[in-house]
Amino acid sequence: MLSTQHRMRPEISSMMQQHFYEDLLNSEVVLSRPHVKGLQKDVVYIQHSNPEIYVEEDESRKNVFEVNYALSLTKYFLQQGYDFNQIAILCTYSIQRYNLRRAAKKMFGDEENSRISKIRIENVDNYQGEECDIIILSLVRSKSENNKIGYLNVNLLF
């Protein structure tokens, strides 16, 4: 079993401790990482009430508000001095990934003429084992009446 982790910020690994790894330790590498530029905290959760849309022909879900928010947040991090290759946008649905990529081209320019191709926009499952300085996670599903996020079986953290 994992005893010391070397990738996640302590704020994220503490959530893993609650559910999977009670005695998980953080390596010195993660404890000495610089703070995220332009934010008051290194890990931030954005709560909103904009519902997702089920796209029947794709059997997938998208959330237009989160597409716009994630890309605006990307633009903000670029203004803070981060480079395109330091940012990854992850999502939980394939149609959300498609919409993020399409909107990113509109916001930042065509992949062939821009550095936008360096931003990783992927489904969570396709990103396992990789690292990036800034991770923007679009869960797509909005807060429900029972205080759960979509299919996740944990209470909201805020």
Q: Can you describe what's shown?
A:
With 158 residues, the chain is of the alpha/beta class. The chain has two domains: 33 residues, no CATH class; 101 residues, P-loop containing nucleotide triphosphate hydrolases (Rossmann fold, 3-Layer(aba) Sandwich), CATH 3.40.50. Helix content is 28%, strand content 15%. It contains four helices and seven strands; from the N terminus they run βαβαββαβαββ. The strands form three sheets. It has a three-stranded parallel beta sheet, covered by helices on one side. Strand 1, helix 1 and strand 2 form a beta-alpha-beta unit. It starts with a strand and ends in a 20-residue tail after the last strand. It comes from Panagrolaimus superbus.
The count of helical stretches stands at 4
- The neighbouring-strand order within the major sheet is 6-5-7
Specify Rg, calculated over alpha carbons: 16 Å
Question: Percent of residues in helical segments?
Answer: 25-40%
Ends apart, CA distance between termini: 29 Å
- Overall domain count: 2
Number of strands: 7
**Structural class category:** alpha/beta
Order of helices and strands: EHEHEEHEHEE
What is the level-2 CATH architecture name of the largest domain?
Answer: 3-Layer(aba) Sandwich
CATH fold descriptor of the largest domain:
Rossmann fold
Instruction: Determine the mean pLDDT.
Output: 84
Low-confidence spans: none
Identify the CATH class of the largest domain. Alpha Beta
> What's the name of the CATH homologous superfamily of the largest domain?
P-loop containing nucleotide triphosphate hydrolases
Percentage of residues in DSSP E strands: 15-25%
Shape: globular
The profile of the biggest β sheet is: 3 strands, parallel
Counting copies of identical and different chains, the oligomeric state is single chain
Pfam family, one: AAA_12
Domain DNA2/NAM7 helicase-like C-terminal: 1-153
Protein name: DNA2/NAM7 helicase-like C-terminal domain-containing protein
GO biological process, one term: regulatory ncRNA-mediated heterochromatin formation
